[in-house]
Write a structure and sequence with these properties.
By secondary structure, this protein is of the alpha/beta class. The chain has a single domain (about 40-250), classed as Glycoside hydrolase/deacetylase (TIM Barrel), CATH 3.20.20.370. Helix content is about 35%, strand content about 15%. The protein has nine helices and ten strands. The strands form three sheets. Strands 1, 2, 3, 7 and 10 form a five-stranded parallel sheet that branches. Strand 1 (about 40-45), helix 3 (about 55-60) and strand 2 (about 65-70) form a beta-alpha-beta unit. The longest helix is centred in the N-terminal third of the chain and has 18 residues, at about 1-20.
Length: about 260
């Protein structure tokens, strides 16, 4: 009899252990309606990687324009978007910006080589039929000479890769400050916090920097399902006052 009671007690204990898995905590952003008054978000993609084209539908479905900084010397080559794909994105309302001719560190080149990297890149993109006003420094590296060449080549603004969020108007239009790189282990809640914390601090400009869009292909990548979830969230928050614009639109005062 004692053994029977022990067996029953053990069974009840085991059943309790298997059925009491803690539920995933519900975040504050899921439990209350957010209201944005002073926050602007820009989604930017560097390099023109081929997998960037996969976000086209998520952007369109959620009314999200983005800025794609293109290394024009790589366009139409293996691993990078084609001219036609760039044109599809542009015709959807996205912005095409420059990112040098061959993705060179602009602190490592000087004189004619520096001008060629920046100016020829922009000329190539203009020749495709794009209105090109925005630039992103490869690796976020630049100095006074690089900044001057970017301005002289016709770029109205240029983005780095750190020290964000940015203010509107920015402190330096040719040294725009961005949020930390989005990498393979960046999760949806973290990106949401980047946006909500800026609003809670009084507002500002949240510039996201993406590279690859894939699951496990690169350290500097966002998983497609995470981007889709974040895109949907951004789309929904626009009805709560969140503004999502391209870099060029923000710099032109089109808010």
């Amino acid at each position: 009899m004692k053994n029977s009671f022990k067996l029953l007690a053990l069974l009840f204990f085991m059943a309790g252990c298997t059925s009491s898995v803690p539920a995933t905590p519900v975040t504050e952003t899921e439990t209350k309606s957010l209201v944005f008054k002073n926050t602007v978000v820009s989604l930017t993609f560097d390099d023109g990687d081929a997998d960037n084209y996969s976000v086209r539908s998520a952007l369109a479905e959620n009314n999200l324009p983005a800025t794609f900084y293109v290394v024009s010397g790589f366009t139409n080559s293996n691993g990078y978007m084609t001219e036609d794909q760039l044109r599809d994105l542009y015709n959807d309302g996205n912005e095409i910006g420059g990112h040098t001719l061959s993705h060179v560190n602009l602190e490592d080149v000087r004189g004619a080589d520096l001008e060629r990297e920046v100016c020829q890149d922009r000329s190539n993109l203009v020749a495709y039929g794009f209105d090109v006003t925005s630039f992103a420094y490869p690796f976020g590296h630049y100095d006074d000479e690089a900044k001057k060449v970017v301005k002289d080549c016709g770029y109205g603004n240029a983005r780095g890769v750190s020290d964000g969020p940015e203010t509107i108007p920015p402190v330096d239009g040719h040294g725009l400050r961005a949020m930390p790189y989005i990498v393979s282990d960046t999760r949806f809640p973290k990106m949401v916090r980047y946006v909500t914390e800026v609003e809670n601090s009084g507002g500002g400009w949240v510039i996201f920097v993406f590279h690859h869009v894939c699951d496990g292909c690169d350290q500097y990548a966002i998983k497609p399902q995470v981007f889709a979830e974040f895109s949907q969230w951004l789309g929904e928050q626009q009805s709560n006052g969140l503004i999502v614009k391209t870099v060029g639109q923000v710099m032109a005062g089109d808010q």
